[in-house]
Write a structure and sequence with these properties.
176 residues, alpha+beta, 2 domains, six-stranded mixed beta sheet, two-stranded antiparallel ribbon, 4 helices, 22% helix, elongated
Length: 176
């Protein structure tokens, strides 16, 4: 049995017009998928397959949390995720895509949705991930504060007259 066999959906063998599957993803799944964005997490995936005349519509409802790196303190943090996604699949001669529809060989008759689930999870993660206020690593927050730009003082470069000496040197060059 392969790493992702439980994510195979047998489309050719579907007897009913609708099928519902429940899949769990966990740390082992993320380690096996070997994606760069997420290494750990746990979520439930409710998958619904609807057989239409020539296509299959596969809907995913994903709820859980993943572990990402905090942008501020670089410690791991839990990021809740809740997302949905849909795939349109059609049986054909060879693997391919036709617009937004995925074509899988009729002789195979199944699609493995492991990677598609991973992509839906990654797309559900906000661009900015930071701990709640006060939850960041204290020592890293102190270092960050020490090296942050002081807004009133432009990082300590401004003199008493409010100008940056670097700009004054450039103005002097332009005047010559």
């Amino acid at each position: 049995m392969g790493k992702f066999d439980k994510f195979k959906i047998d489309l050719r063998g579907m007897t009913a017009s609708t099928a519902t599957l429940e899949m769990d993803i966990d740390n082992t799944y993320f380690a096996n998928i070997d994606g760069p964005e997420i290494q750990k997490g746990k979520a439930q995936v409710l998958t619904t397959v609807v057989k239409k005349s020539e296509t299959f519509e596969i809907s995913f409802d994903i709820k859980g949390s993943v572990v990402v790196i905090c942008d501020r303190c670089l410690d791991e943090m839990d990021q809740p995720i809740e997302t949905t996604g849909t795939l349109s699949v059609k049986l054909g001669k060879d693997f391919g895509e036709q617009g937004d529809t995925i074509i899988i060989p009729e002789k195979d008759g199944y699609i493995n949705v492991a990677w598609y689930i991973y992509e839906f999870v990654v797309l559900a993660i906000p661009i900015k991930h930071v701990h709640a206020p006060g939850k960041c690593n204290k020592s890293m927050s102190d270092i960050l504060q020490k090296h942050s730009v002081d807004e009133e003082n432009e990082g300590g470069f401004a003199e008493d007259n409010g100008t940056d000496p670097r700009w004054d040197a450039l103005k002097e060059i332009m005047d010559n």
